Amino acid sequence: xxxxxxxxxxxxxxxxxxxxxxxxxxxxxxxxxxxxxxxxxxxxxxxxxxxxxxxxxxxxxxxxxxxxxxxxxxxxxxxxxxxxxxxxxxxxxxxxxxxxxxxxxxxxxxxxxxxxxxxxxxxxxxxxxxxxxxxxxxxxxxxxxxxxxxxxxxxxxxxxxxxxxxxxxxxxxxxxxxxxxxxxxxxxxxxxxxxxxxxxxxxxxxxxxxxxxxxxxxxxxxxxxxxxxxxxxxxxxxxxxxxxxxxxxxxxxxxxxxxxxxxxxxxxxxxxxxxxxxxxx
Length: 281
Description:
This is Sir2 family NAD-dependent protein deacetylase. The chain is α/β, with parallel strands linked by helices.
């Protein structure tokens, strides 16, 4: 099942799309922790809400209305979501992402942990947050595209409900870049909950683009790694042209590391086999 993905990675024709699950492997707070902090800062009694009535998007929107800006919340997140270099250097997941050498990595994480991991492992990269950064792209240098913004730029952060609804137009500079990057490449989504409506919308739009082109059969295969097997999600995602990958009989907290370890080993094995096939001078 990994053969096509391994081939695309070796040919540098694969894009990695990394979500919050990647950061959570090194102990970063979950969205529920963010909700708890916002509620405490606003002196909001969350016990009066039924389960499912309060989500972080709406709560962040309320925070912006009450506080006048998202700045203080961004500062709190920056302090709590920035890890010591020693912890990142010990992260096997971040090491494997760096080692797999994707030419383009999209991430919806605001934190700088991917960038720091690249620095620690001696990998050059270009960080892209806005249209101005696109002009800084250098041939052969990996791109880390901060699809939902970056802590260094409050205005870039997509965290509140209005931010997400604005992005549904799919017409921002980074959306246009993603459409261009993704049409001819394999995409591997990791670290996402399939309840993330924004990412589901992106997957659906990508499928609709190919479906409407008349060349759907020529679309490169793309993949979603899920921590747990879910036949309902699998059927829906496969309808959109995405192959679902899981690690059977593996604890969810270890699944991503195990998967990336196997993927990296498969790429290295394919490289070694190719090297042995090359004619000697």
